[in-house]
Amino acid sequence: MATASAPEVAAGDLALLIPVGADVYAVRLASVREVVVAPRVTQLPTAPPTVRGVFNVRGDIVPLLDTGLLLGLRAVADEPYAVLIETAHGVAGLVATGMPATARLRESVGRSDLEGTTETHLIDDTRLAVVLDLATLLNPVRISR
Amino acid sequence: MSPPEPLPEGDFQRLFATEAEGRLDTLVDELLELEKGGSGPELLASLFREAHTIKGGAAVVGMGHVARVAHALEDLLEEVRSDRRGVDASLIDAVLAGVDAIRALIPLAVAGQDHEQAASEAERRLRIALGGDGSVEAVAPRAAAPSTAPAPAPPTSTRDVTGEVSASLPDEEPTRIPSSAPAERDASDGARGSEDGARSGDRTAEADPAATHVEPARPAAVEMLQMPVHRIDDLVRLIGEASAATLRLGSALLEHLDRDPAGVAEYRDLVRSLNELQELALRARMIPVMSLAPRLRRAVRDLAHETGKEVRFETRGEDAEIDRGVLERLADPLLHLVRNAVDHGIETPDERRLLGKPIEGTVRLHAMQLGSEVVIAVSDDGHGIDVGRVRETAGRTDTSALEMDDESALYLIFRSGLTTATRVTAVSGRGVGLDAVRASLNAVRGRVEVRSDPGLGTEFRIAVPITMTTLRCLVITAAGQPYAIPLHSVRAVLAPQPAATVGGRPMTMVDGRPVPISSLAGVLGTGNGSDGPAVVVAGLTRNHAFKVDDLVDQRDVVVKGLGELIPRLPAVAGAGVQPDGSILLVLEAAGLIDRARRMDAGDRSLEAAEGIGPATAPPRRARSILVVDDALTVRELQRSIFENAGYRVMLANDGEEALREISSERPDLVLTDVQMPRMDGFQLTAAIRGQPALASLPVIILTSRGSDEDRRRGLECGADGYIVKSGFDQSALLAAVERLLGAEQ
Questions:
Q1: Closest Cα of chain B to A55: distance in Å?
Q2: Is B240 part of the contact surface with chain A (CB cutoff 8 Å)?
Q3: Which of A56, B224, B500, B674 is the most exposed place for a label (fewest CB within 10 A)?
Q4: Nearest to A61 among B481, B562, B595 (CB)
């Protein structure tokens, strides 16, 4: 299984698309362990706002992170899906507000300005997806901010 | 029955490494005893025996370079044992250096790293200490593989502990255990034993432990078995997984078959057996906390020499045991605290003489088991921590530090980069260390508290869970969410009751003493107050009551960490997965109490300032009380009462000391005993009243002298209150203090 430190996804690669609000983000498919539907989240008092809580994945305790806040955007309203990502620091869940789906990324249309992301790719003729820089995003220091 | 599978070669080396660690510790302990004037053939024989055994063991597992150094060490000790050389500091230093070298070489050998040169250098130094020119014999290359190991070379002669000639392995060409042929190995050991026997007559196996690294027969009834630690770890892990699977099975019984698992006898039997198995397996990992003592004693000795101080190292609590993995993580923090005590705490002999203290300072290591925690205290009788300087140093980069009261400021020492040492030594004063101590403790869900009395000394208390796997917990709910509180932290459960306030803080009485009370949901930031029962939890030095919604039950929780991605949350110790798949958070008493106290103190920006203790909070200034009493117990009791009530407490032994305290910092109130050496309470009161600047300083006399004459005299001296100890009532005392302070403000 690849980790977040592996090279991020490029044009032609299979990626998992993660809807967050009105935007769509992409991560390399190999970084994804699975998608959990409606995770049963336990709030973690005193944790930073980026941590929405923890949930149980077959006996493992996994933190669920607010993808919006991690990107410096608005907090997500709810957590209908959790995308489990393998990182160098363990497994983390990223909130997806819509059903994640796989897609092959098309050409890049340029670098994304958003911190914690890399390129923006076309995923069909009209839609774009911003590739997440998982090593930067899923980092204890960033999560604690 | 098939023969047992032989241990891989690496396992033998690790086994030897573990054994050698203990023997090196013993060597150090005995050397320090020798240095202190201990003597006698038994001590010398034991020293020699340890070196001899290490040499033999190293040779047997293929650590030829280590064996050579041990051999040189043995030769040096032999010089002493045979009275050819006396014991002096240079000898002790040389032997200790040899011990250090062996300790450093063994891990290199286990890891297969090159250590030949380091070994030669260590051997050379030992030979120089022996009076030689330090020349080292050529070293034979290490055998490449067990299968090509050379046959045992003819034994060389040396002297055993009884002074008889015995045999040991030649150092240059160590014999290694053929890992593929245990039967052969046994035969080989047996053969050596025969040779020994032939050379030494009726000598028993105990006389030459080097013949094999297996412990000689002991008279004790308990048979011991050494095994690689990872086997126990694997066992513990598998039992933990089996426990978790059993919980899921119970859940499935309920969900799919509608059977309450508690009513299924087979399920209950399975759970009971697993619990017993888990307890036994965990116990197998336990080792005495004091197994670290030799290393710490050595550190104290070395640093005392280096700094020209005289320091005695004392230990208490030999019975306290702890999980081996936890103790390993404690070694460095404890070493750091002990070094700090010597380097920064204990004064030089001249300073101590001037202060009227015994020339020899004392550093104490005290371990005790409290429930499922072990508390380890490192204390010294040095000059204590200069809180003013800590505050001033921290204030250079963080002005909020300047506003902190003494207790909060004291915890600034755990901040990275902070040192108040005026000189930097090899071991301390660089501002790195105490933050690392805190970080190491965080990793084992431990915590540290510090208390310092100026002029009297400092105590660091470390509390760590005995094991990091299963905790018996009280489960409660707060703001609708269940939480587990480790049962060992729970002091009492109180029925719902109306809150009272003391000193402006909500308080409840527990065993006749005031204890602060807060809403758990409020402290956790998940909700508001509750009218439910309260749970009184204990930190290391103080209790606190938390109001909850409901008490649910008691249960064992297999506690897991929250992972590396989430920062450490001081109020949350970990979490367990429940049979229904939900997650139960386990709270940590000390972290909760700190958080509650900081919130009481008005610090609402806790999220940004999570750390240990109240270090990062700039709380309001607590009112201070100077407690003057020559009885330590009374002082501490009063300190506890007032600190629990939210006051800052200053202490003095007698009237004279009290006046000095007052001149350096004016307290808000003085509470004094009457009968004290040098200056009694009446004289103190009169002296305070004699100073115009202190005319309004409230003074309460608390004494066992209850006669009318005494009372009259107290009031004549100018005391504002006179309380007789025989009618001592904490509530009345607090009320009197509150009344006087209220009037003063």
A1: 7
A2: no
A3: B224
A4: B562
ipTM entry: 0.91
Count CB pairs under 8 A between chains A and B: 83
Residue B630 counted as domain residue: yes
Please, which pLDDT band fits residue B743 given cuts at 50, 70 and 90?
A: very low
Residue A107 belongs to some domain of the structure: yes
Which of B244, B567, B571 comes nearest A140 by C-beta?
B567
Computed over every residue of chain A, the mean pLDDT equals 89
Residue B218 lies in a domain: no
- Give the per-residue SS3 of B596-610: HHHHHCCCCCHHHHC
Contact assessment for residue B69 and residue B101, using Cβ atoms and an 8 Å cutoff: yes
Provide the whole-model pTM: 0.47
Whether A44 and chain B come into contact, CB under 8 Å, resolves to yes
Flag whether residue A3 sits within 8 Å of chain B, measured between CB atoms: no
Give me chain B's average pLDDT, please.
Answer: 75
Q: Which residue matches tokens 């006669």? A: B707
Of A44, A55, A59, the CB nearest to B244: A59
Under an 8 A CB cutoff, do A45 and B562 touch?
Answer: no
Q: What is the mean pLDDT of residues B595-617?
A: 52
Domain harbouring A43, CATH code: 2.40.50.180
Partner residue opposite B569 with nearest CB, options A47, A87, A91: A47
- Given a contact cutoff of 8 angstroms between Cβ atoms, the answer to whether B168 and B208 are in contact is yes
Calpha distance B707→B560 (Å, rounded): 61
Q: Are B15 and B130 found together in one domain?
A: yes
Number of domains in chain A: 1
Segments forming the whole domain that contains residue A131: 14-144
* Chain A CB contacts of B583 below 8 Å: 42, 54-56, 61
The better pLDDT of the pair B138, B559 is held by B559
pLDDT tens-digit readout, A7-25: 468 888 899 999 999 999 9
- What is the structure's pLDDT at B360? 94
Rg value, chain A, Cα? 14
Which residues have C-beta within 8 Å of that of residue B126, sequence separation ≥ 6? B69, B72, B73, B75, B76, B94, B97, B98
Instruction: Confirm whether B407 is domain-assigned.
Output: yes
Q: Does one domain contain both B39 and B184? A: yes
Structural domain span for residue B233 = 229-284
Name the least confident of B200-214, B339-353, B669-683. B200-214
Last residue of a domain, one of B221, B251, B284: B284
- Test mutation, A52, A55, A61, chain B, max B CBs within 10 A: A61
How do residues B171-207 score in pLDDT, each as one tens digit?
333 333 333 333 333 333 333 333 333 333 333 333 3
